[in-house]
Design a protein that fits this description.
It contains 14 helices and four strands. By secondary structure, the protein is mostly helical. It has one domain. Strand 3 (380-382) and strand 4 (388-390) form a beta hairpin. Helix 2 (14-34) runs antiparallel to helix 13, helix 7 packs antiparallel against helix 8 and helix 8 packs across helix 9. The longest helix is centred in the middle third of the chain and has 29 residues, at 193-221.
Length: 405
């Protein structure tokens, strides 16, 4: 099942964990102290590039008479929407560029180009997801409320539809994020019905604005070619949804991205929080172009450790984080985009079935593991809550690695 004691799972002492925290704090401090004009220029160039790409795409769609021109224009528009969503909207809303004190490029003022309301997303994502990442029953992003990603969630017959739900979520991902955000605001309101109504109205206004822009205004400006523009906008939004879904899922649900029980949060120190973030995320092996296309979320481990550090610095942070993982014999989960996505699909389809059809143990499965997998007959593992687990025959001494990698 999920991890309750990160120290027991990683075989680190309290002193080791605190030392690890000191090293990670030093990485954060070094990056913060070195931020400057080079970083500010990066995000400004990214915004200029994205806007130029969008204008170019829309002009090709509206002016070109050939199918090739329409395809190139639609592809340009789709890429522009991906860049705006991930490298710009996601990262600006994380506060990665707030240190610039630019009133436009700021987490409190940026509104991204999709139906979700940025302010609602900031609470559901920046706080609820990043603070409690992969904690079962606490992190709403763990399966997004419609999929079973860990055996800690009891199987129900509705989970048989999980593969179809996964396809639907991929196609309408921006709508899932929008509803996710407003539902989090409902929970945050704690019964304040007036506030809930205000948040719902904000979402409705944002949906209306996006709908008019993509499906009424731009098609109308195209005159007799309105069908081409309408189709191009719908296709670009679909591509953006699919790409965002793939990147997010590959960073959170492949093998090696561990899950945690709520008990793991009890008296959790800053260093233990760091350790949980390192265990709960997965990276994508990427070159500069793919990294930019993912909003640098190919460095998901580093992003979860330092969510408010500028995305253009995560590549250099990754070198130091990997060295820390090697020093403390910790896993550094990374793989190609195709591999990470196939592993994620395997988990989604596998956990759609009742547990009786699964062969791996609930404590040592590819998609879910706990500290109890390091036990063997005659030995028990002490959990963070003080409870003790009796070892089972599935955990033999020869299967105990030096660390959890």
């Amino acid at each position: 099942m999920a991890i309750t004691d990160v120290g027991a799972y990683t075989h680190l002492t309290e002193a080791d964990i605190e030392a690890l925290g000191v090293e990670l704090d030093a990485i954060r401090r070094d990056i913060e102290e070195s931020l400057g004009e080079r970083d500010a220029a990066y995000i400004r160039r990214a915004i200029i590039f994205q806007r130029a790409l969008e204008v170019t795409g829309r002009m090709l769609i509206g002016v070109s008479r050939s199918r090739t021109g329409w395809l190139v224009g639609t592809a340009s528009l789709a890429f522009a929407k991906c860049v705006e969503n991930m490298e710009i909207g996601h990262n600006v809303s994380h506060g990665q560029w707030d240190w610039m004190n630019d009133p436009e490029i700021h987490s409190t003022t940026w509104e991204w180009d999709m139906v979700a309301v940025s302010a609602q997303w900031r609470y559901s994502h920046n706080y609820r997801h990043h603070m409690f990442s992969n904690v079962v029953g606490v992190d709403d992003d763990l399966g997004f409320g419609i999929m079973r990603i860990t055996r800690d969630e009891p199987w129900q017959p509705v989970h048989l539809l999980q593969p179809l739900r996964n396809l639907l979520l991929a196609a309408i991902f921006e709508w899932g994020i929008a509803l996710h955000g407003v539902h989090s605001e409902r929970d945050r309101a704690e019964g304040d019905t007036a506030r809930v109504k205000r948040e719902r109205k904000k979402l409705i206004r944002k949906i209306a604005r996006q709908g008019v822009k993509d499906y009424a205004l731009f098609p109308a400006l195209s005159g007799r070619r309105w069908r081409r523009t309408l189709a191009a906008n719908a296709a670009a939004n679909l591509v953006r949804n699919l790409w965002t879904y793939v990147v997010i899922f590959c960073g959170h649900f492949p093998d090696g991205a561990e899950k945690f029980t709520a008990e793991a949060l009890d008296e959790e120190s800053r260093a233990e929080w760091y350790l949980r973030q390192m265990l709960g995320a997965a990276n994508i092996d990427a070159g500069p172009l793919l990294a930019f296309s993912t909003g640098n979320l190919c460095y998901q481990i580093e992003h979860h450790l330092f969510p408010d550090l500028p995305s253009n610095r995560l590549a250099e942070v990754a070198v130091r984080v990997r060295a820390v993982c090697e020093k403390y014999d910790l896993p550094y989960t990374s793989g190609s985009l195709v591999r990470q996505y196939l592993l994620t699909l395997r988990t989604i389809h596998k956990l759609a079935l009742p547990d009786r059809f699964l062969t791996a143990t609930s404590h040592d499965a590819p998609e879910t593991a706990s500290e109890q997998k390091f036990a063997w007959p005659g030995r028990s593992v002490t959990l963070g809550s003080g409870a003790r687990c009796k070892a089972t025959d599935c955990c033999a001494p020869e299967r105990i690695p030096r660390g959890p990698a």
